[in-house]
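Structure ticket #2291
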Amino acid sequence: MNRQIILAALLATTTLTCTAAADERSHGVSPWGPTDEIGALNRVTEDSVFDVLRRITSGKTYDLGVEYFVGMPSYSAFGQPRYQIWNVHTPQGTIVDNPTGTGDEANSYLTYSGNAISMYVHTGTHVDALAHFGLRGRIWNGFSADDHLGDRGWLRGGVENYPPIIARGVLIDIAALKGVDVLPASYGVTAADIRDALARQGLEIREGDVAMVRTGRMRWFDDAERYMTDTPGLTRESAEWLADRGVILIGADNISTDVGPSQEPDNWVPVQPRHQTPTPQYRRSG
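Resolution: structure written out below.
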């Protein structure tokens, strides 16, 4: 199965960060210098984008975005707000409230509807910022809360620094490798699994690729508790294997990229603070 996806926009993703730090338990240190805020996305260049775009031979696209709905999977147990949507304006409410001051006749003629949403920013399809996780009080490249965290968020390591991400996407189908619809609960994807899946699919990882890892767990996305409990996912070993080959982004169809519960007793998401490669969680993998 030779499935390659060219992605112009990514979802919930972990950004890979290359590290020059000697201490395995330290935050990532950028080989692109002390002011770098985008990690492996430095590999996205005009030349790399053009190389991808000139390979396109059709207009076929793959929608990897999730549907947002009340009750969708979220880390509400951590105190994060769940996804909510509500009406702000309705046709009849506009007539009754007359918020525009134009009167019944005008409000009856112009049918007005409007909505608002509220949610934690890591709900559903998204790309992680390099400020999302760190180690020992410091995020990517050593930026600290004391110096770089204001009342409205981090002043370093935000997604506003990311370039448009246009790269070769490689779907790594671990569930198909194992001959199952969904990987077993808490299965940790190994580097050997990734190598075997790529060999089975006749693919290879190249520097600058986006790696999309399929566990099959997205089949359960409509059942939040089932989807989130004891999720299969990447281990530190498999994430490092991908990072060492120059991947710029890792996507997964589970809740947080990492296997859960973590296989490391002192770190419940070891993949994320170490590599800080943008990682998307995506949907259409079933």
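Closing remark: Residues 84-118 form one domain.
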